[in-house]
Design goal:
By secondary structure, the chain is mainly beta. The strands form 2 sheets. The protein has a 6-stranded mixed beta sheet. A 4-stranded mixed beta sheet has the order 2-4-6-8, with no helix packed on it. Strand 9 (about 130-140) and strand 10 form a beta hairpin. The chain is about 10% helix and about 35% strand. The protein has one domain (about 35-149): Jelly Rolls. The chain has one helix at about 25-35, and strands spanning about 35-40, 50-55, 55-65, 70, 80-85, 90-95, 110, 125, 130-140, 140-149. The longest helix is centred in the N-terminal third of the chain and has 12 residues, at about 25-35. It starts with about 20 loop residues before the first helix and ends with a strand.
Amino acid sequence: MPGSHLAFLPSLQTGRGAGLLDSTEMSKFFNMVLGCVNGITAHAGGGVALATPLNLGFNEVDVCATAADSVVLPPAIMNALCWVYNGGAASMNIFNLQSNPNTGVTDVIVPHGVTAANAGTVAVALTAGHMTGFICMTLGKWKQIADFA
């Protein structure tokens, strides 16, 4: 089922037939949706090509040493949430995924307070000490919820 969390659960994908979820798949699913990852280091020097990948759920970036160090959002799949906290010393850039495995095209980000999506490689900045959230209501499109201090 492209466009849903089921894309991450091999036993439920189309063409595989009926199947039961084993505990490993259920654990993986819940960690992606509800999990929290800390100890993330934003890619030094910035840019989208080598940006540190984030996970669905909660992400705490502990190291962002220089302005514009970068991270990249996970694939934009419907009903997904991605929260990002910048615990580093500098503002960081959050990029969209350049090739979503569910669509084969570049995801987009609609920044908070606007209606149009950013161009393919335009990042959303997140100030040190701030948190922001992203929600996907349309396959391939992240919408920034807000920026919290």
